[in-house]
Amino acid sequence: MQRIQGLHHITAVASNPQANLDFYVGILGQRLVKTTVNFDDPGTYHLYYGDNVGTPGTAMTFFPWQGMHRGRLGAGETSAAAYALPKSSLSWWLDHLSANHVTIASMGKRFGETVVTFPDPDGMMIELVATDDPSTVQHWEDGPIPAERALRGFHSVTLLLNDVEASASVLVDKLGYELVGQEDNRYRYKGASADRGLYIDLLHVPEAGRGAFGAGSIHHIAFRTVDDEEQLEYLTHLRASGLQVTPVQDRQYFHSIYFHEPGGVLFEVATDEPGFTSDESVAELGSALKLPEWYESRRSQIEAKLPAIDRDAHSAKNQD
Ligand code: ZN
C-alpha cells in the first residue's frame, strides 16, 4: 500500500456564504470551483475553493450555515490551515492583507520559515507560510492575484491535541507519515509526496480544554488516496487496527471514508478521482449550482431555500 501523499481538502463551517466567498475568492484569490449543497442538508451550500481546477491539495470547502454561532477552538480540532506562498511574495501579501483590512493575528518563524496568521470572516485561523520551494498549482488566470503572487495550495494543517502520542501513531503507522521536525510543543509530520499539502503539525497542549463547534471550526481534514482500490486497502487496514471507519461515501467529486483519530480530529481519506471537472468544464467550474442526481428532482425547492450569492464578486471587499 502506498503511503498517503498529503492533504486532499479541508472542510470547515462558515456563517455567511457571501462573506466567505468574498474572502476566499476576492482576497485570497482562490477560485470557486464548485457550487453545490451539503449532501446531508441540501438547504445549505457546499462551496469549494481551490486552484484553477481544484487540484487535490488546494481544495478548501465550506458549509456556510446562515446565522451559525461562532465556534470556540479547543483540543481535538484542527486549529489552523496553512497555504504556501513563494518567499519573494511575502511583503506583497502583507500589503494586500492590510489593504483589505485583514488583521494579522501573529507573525513569526516556524521551522525556519515565516508564518503569517490571520482570521477568516468567521475567525478560522489561516496561515501563509513563505517558502523557498512552493509547489506548483494550476493558476486561475481570471482571478484577482497575479500568477507570481498566487498561493500555491496547502502547506500544512495544525492539530491542537491534549496528547500527541496516539495521534502520531496513526499518522506514522497507519498513514505512512514521517516525523521531520520538532520545535517546542510542535511536531511536524510529512506525507510521501514532494508536492502540495505535505505537512501535518501536532501541537501538544495538555491543558487545552474542549472547544465548541460552530462557524470558524474546521470540520475535518482529508488525505489523498489515488483511487478506489487504494482507498479500500486503507479502509481494511484502518479497521483492522481498531479504528471505527465509515463505509465509502459518494461525494460526487471524490469518494470518502471517515474516522476519528485518537485525539478527536475527524480524518477523511478521499480519492483524487473523479475530480471537479466530472460534471462541468474547466471554464464553467463553480458558475452554476450543481446537484447530485438524487436531488435533481427537488432542484426548484432547493434553489428557493438557498440564499442568493454573487459568484462574480472578485474584487476584494472590506470584511467588517
Ligand atoms: Zn471532506
How do you describe this structure in short?
The protein has helices at about 15-25, 90-100, 165-175, 230-240, 300-305, and strands at about 5-15, 30-40, 40-50, 60-65, 75-85, 105-110, 115-120, 125-130, 155-160, 180-185, 185-190, 200-205, 220-225, 250, 255-260, 265-275. With about 325 residues, the protein is of the alpha+beta class. The strands form 2 sheets. It has an 8-stranded mixed sheet with strand order 2-3-4-1-13-16-15-14. The protein has an 8-stranded mixed sheet with strand order 6-7-8-5-9-12-11-10, with helices on one face.
Which fold name fills CATH's third level, the topology?
A: 2,3-Dihydroxybiphenyl 1,2-Dioxygenase, domain 1
User: Number of helical segments?
Assistant: 5
Low-pLDDT windows of residues: 315-320
Question: Which small compounds were modeled alongside the protein?
Answer: zinc ion
Radius of gyration (CA) equals 18 Å
Mean pLDDT: 95
Categorize the overall geometry: globular
Architecture (CATH level 2) name? Roll
The name of the CATH superfamily reads 2,3-Dihydroxybiphenyl 1,2-Dioxygenase, domain 1
Order the strands across the largest sheet as they lie in space.
2-3-4-1-13-16-15-14
Derived structural class: alpha+beta
Kindly give the count of domains. Answer: 1
**Element order: H for helix, E for strand:** EHEEEEHEEEEHEEEEHEEEH
